[in-house]
């Protein structure tokens, strides 16, 4: 029962990780730059994401521009696009597989099949967490290095936005869920290796009868 509850907890974490992963991929606020200027009425908030750049004015106007050209983007944005999409796909596969393999569901067949399904789902979650953690770390490193660069003007410097933090938290949830699923299945398999089922061997009646027949021949 405890293992089933732990798997259900890991499944909830994985769900939050999947939703956060998708939201971080689509949100336009990976890096934010607030330019207030001399008058707060003309304040402008510029946000840049993986797929679009948005500008928010203090008057309530909001405009976005899609990034159509892929080759013109920096290499870290291209890598972030690819890895975040892979993270979303892998985490979705992990949700589908662990739904079949969890103890609290009636899908997946016998115990060994469900255990293998949970282990495979945990591997998918681990890969999705790694693919989601790499772009967020790389993107944050680029933001910090540009912010500390003295040759870059203040108007061109940015700070990490909410999408970066969402990506970090989602990757952590996916990694924790993957570790829980893999460790629970590994403990079960390890117990089966250490304590194999006992096999009882009974002597065959045919051998006993043959042995008795040979003894009578020698008397």
TrEMBL record:
The keyword ATP-binding does not apply. Gene3D superfamilies: 1.20.140.150. The keyword Aminoacyl-tRNA synthetase does not apply. GO terms for molecular function: structural molecule activity. Pfam families: PMP22_Claudin. One of its GO terms (cellular component) is plasma membrane. The chain crosses the membrane at residues 84-102, 122-141, 162-181. InterPro entries: Claudin, Claudin_CS, PMP22/EMP/MP20/Claudin. It is found in: Cell junction, Tight junction; Cell membrane. Claudins function as major constituents of the tight junction complexes that regulate the permeability of epithelia. Belongs to the claudin family. This is Claudin.
């Amino acid at each position: 029962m405890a293992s089933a509850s732990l798997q259900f907890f890991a499944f909830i974490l994985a769900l939050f990780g999947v939703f956060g992963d998708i939201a971080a991929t689509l949100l336009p606020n990976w890096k934010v730059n607030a330019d207030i200027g001399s008058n707060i009425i003309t304040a402008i908030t510029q946000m840049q994401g993986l797929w679009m750049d948005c500008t928010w004015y203090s008057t309530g106007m909001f405009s976005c521009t899609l990034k159509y050209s892929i080759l013109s983007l920096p290499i870290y944005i291209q890598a972030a696009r690819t890895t975040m999409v892979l993270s979303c796909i892998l985490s979705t596969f992990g949700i589908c597989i662990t739904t079949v393999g969890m103890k609290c569901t009636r899908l997946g067949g016998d115990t060994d099949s469900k255990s293998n399904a949970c282990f495979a789902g945990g591997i998918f979650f681990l890969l999705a967490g790694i693919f989601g953690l790499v772009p967020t770390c790389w993107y944050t490193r680029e933001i910090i290095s540009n912010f500390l660069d003295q040759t870059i003007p203040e108007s061109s410097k940015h700070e990490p936005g909410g999408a970066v933090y969402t990506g970090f938290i989602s990757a952590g949830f996916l990694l924790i869920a993957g570790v829980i699923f893999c460790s629970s299945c590994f403990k079960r398999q390890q117990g089966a290796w250490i304590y194999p089922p006992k096999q009882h061997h009974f002597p065959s009646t045919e051998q006993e009868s043959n042995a008795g027949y040979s003894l009578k021949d020698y008397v």
